[in-house]
Design goal:
Blueprint lengths: L2 H25 L1 H23 L6 H15 L2 H14 L1 H35 L2
Helix pairs in contact: 1-2, 1-3, 2-3, 2-4, 2-5, 4-5
């Protein structure tokens, strides 16, 4: 493993964790849902537009995907939020779980579709 990959993942991971924290502070339990849905979209877009087209250096892709988006969308925050909601309302926890799973798939699909469509547009104008 190259040092620049490690440094990139660590630096971007710090930023991703800070962004998730800010969303959680602004929107409470909904902030984690927002972060996860946005992260699903961004990771799909990054993968299908930036990485597939080889637009950035590998260390930067690792930092953005694994570091920034990985820390932004942590599974531990999702789990903790679901348990917290479940202590107050099983229905609320179930709705949050369903929104996260289905919404995450939808957002990842939208990210992929936008990336592919944008890629075709760029190729047509080149």
């Amino acid at each position: 493993m190259k040092l620049k990959n490690v440094v990139s993942v660590a630096a971007f991971g710090f930023a991703g964790g800070c962004f998730r924290y800010l969303l959680s502070m602004a929107f409470d339990t909904r902030g984690v849902l927002i972060a996860n849905l946005l992260g699903c979209f961004l990771l799909a877009f990054l993968t299908y537009y930036v990485i597939e087209r080889d637009l950035l250096a590998g260390w930067l892709n690792a930092g953005l995907g694994t570091g920034l988006i990985g820390a932004f969308t942590t599974f531990s925050s999702f789990t903790t939020t679901t348990i917290k909601l479940g202590q107050h309302s099983l229905l609320g926890a179930g709705v949050s779980l369903l929104l996260s799973m289905v919404g995450g798939l939808v957002m990842a699909g939208l990210g992929m579709l936008l990336a592919r469509r944008l890629g075709r547009t760029v190729e047509q104008h080149a």
